[in-house]
Amino acid sequence: MVALLSSWPWDNLGVYKYLLYGPLVAKVIYSSAWEQGKADQWCLHILILCALRGSIHQLWSSFHNMLFLTRRRRVLSDGVDFKQIDEEWDWDNFLILQSFIGALVYYSFLPIRKLPLWDPKGAIVALLLHVGISEPLFYWVHRAFHTGYLFTRYHSFHHSIPVPQSFTAGYGTPLEHLFLCVVMGVPILGACLLGTGSAGLVYGYVLLFDFLRCMGHSNVEVLPHGLFEALPFLRHLIYTPTYHSLHHTEKNSNFCLFMPLFDVWGGTTNSKSWELHKEINEGKNDEVPDFVFLAHVVDVSSSIHVPFICRTFGSMPYSFKPFLLVIWPAAFLTMLVMWAWSKTFLVSFYKLRGRLHQIWAVPRYGFQYFLPFARDGINDQIELAILRADKMDVKVLSLAALNKNEALNGGGTLFVSKHQHLKVRVVHGNTLTAAVILNEIHKDVKEIFLTGATSKLGRAIALYLCRKRIRVLMLTLSAERFQKIQKEAPPECQHYLVQVTKYQAAQSCKTWIVGKWLSPWEQTWAPPGTQFHQFVVPPIIGFRRDCTYGKLAAMRLPQDVQGLGMCEYTMDRGVVHACHAGGVVHFLEGWTHHEVGAIDVDRIDVVWRAALKHGLTPA
């Protein structure tokens, strides 16, 4: 049987739970229209407070996930995975509950109805009541929540979160948040009863309360250790994210709300608190990644698909959402700032076999890669990222789609030739990309139509297929480039490669491998039932309903991956682009060669078998 007040009444409503704010909104609108043209101030304040409180939690979450700023000051080094994100999906339930309580208090408590804008005495009264009542009340009740029945039925859910974040501060049961409402309400109501309450006090105390709660759960140390060494008494007056993280991990110490003084008096201070705080401030908790995937932004709207913008949005495959229109102008301005700043930044990370894998991003957008004057600047950023990884002793760095463009840097050859003593292995991952595409093709296929036929991937796919005695119609206008590839094939297989110059040549071919973007008109030449495989960025639009469209080459990471909480563009959870997976395999196998330039066709099957051996599976 479910314990009383251990679950939210609106758990099953999904996004429709926000309709519960409807009565407050209706009251504001009604009073504005019919009650002498003046909106109901208290209901309006409650709605504004809910919005501001939600913003505080979101901003702290964004700060935590700005790994390019916070990676050296993280308290727990693990990443936030999909399971935690799903658990905390409805972290804001407590705001709905407390908005109801706020409205109830207003309509049943006369002194709060006519508050001045500000009264400085109220701040002093609220501070005294907080220290004298709220802090000790929270401390003793919090300790009670760590005993048998209360912990099992209520508080264990909060402690089930492995990596605290600001949203974790809101993740709890209704009973816990009712208790927190009392703790937070005592100073405000007390000041109002004593005639010193004000609207400024309500806003200031509530928002500061949430700010400090989010700070403690942020998992990023923000308070310098030197401050506590210079002013030792501050250790008893304000807690730190490190201090609170020990409560989450060890559960039997550091029970205070915001003031460790009460842990001192209760004898529950963790002896490691301040030594660990010092170590984290000195960066001793920082880890060097073994593998780096150097990604890039596709367009302005997809640049919002990162954890430090909206963690829940980033945890789902990218698709256009209406809220992107609201954020787009800010994202566009951020793009301009990123161009000016031009620094590679850390987007996400995960652990595989206990080794750290990081995803870095070059601050360049898809269309820039096709601007001739931008080529040198982009290569400079990629080169700096490679040199930075080399200095950090990263083992393997894998290049994402456009970062290894043949016209840009020869598939990474430029950097390896320029820096011949690199310790880090530079990998384009295209060998596994080719393997994924080739293993998608049905074994009974005898003829294939290939666009982008003379590209790096197109060449490798054509040569591999002709060795399998499969006829390849290679769409290219350049006879010279076609003949060069044809000469690479074994003499007895060269006749399986056929140059074609028009789409009409594929009217009877039901297997297309697309390496060059196809317009809807060009797709009309495919016969009904055609299967489109593709390695083109961006992917082609699925125009034909009588045909089947494959996604970009991708692989699912092994089941033992840890801390992965971001979807890679349009890929499903746990699925990464094949070039990303190719770098992972390169690292797991311990290969010491660079994988740059032309694809070695002889290694396609080798890389494919290695991927399957390490638990990667076709997506």
Question: How would you describe this structure to a colleague?
Answer:
Belongs to the sterol desaturase family. This is aldehyde oxygenase (deformylating). The chain has 619 residues and is an alpha/beta fold. The chain folds into three domains: 11-281, no CATH class; 291-427 and 561-618, no CATH class; 432-552, NAD(P)-binding Rossmann-like Domain (Rossmann fold), CATH 3.40.50. Helices cover 46% and strands 11% of the residues. The protein contains 25 helices and 14 strands. Strands 8-7-6-9-10-11 form a six-stranded parallel beta sheet, with helices on one face. The mean pLDDT is 94.
Strand arrangement, major sheet: 8-7-6-9-10-11
- Count of discrete domains: 3
Distance between the termini: 40 Å
What is the arithmetic mean of pLDDT? 94
Number of helices: 25
Uncertain residue segments: none
Q: Biggest sheet, open or closed, and with what strands and sense?
A: 6 strands, parallel
Helix content: 40-55%
The count of strands amounts to 14
Radius of gyration: 29 Å
Global structural class: alpha/beta
Basic shape: elongated
Task: Determine the strand fraction and express it as a percent band.
Answer: 5-15%
Protein name: aldehyde oxygenase (deformylating)
InterPro entries: CER1-like_C, Fatty_acid_hydroxylase, NAD(P)-bd_dom_sf, Sterol_Desaturase_Related
GO molecular function: aldehyde oxygenase (deformylating) activity; iron ion binding; oxidoreductase activity
Organism: Elaeis guineensis var. tenera (Oil palm)
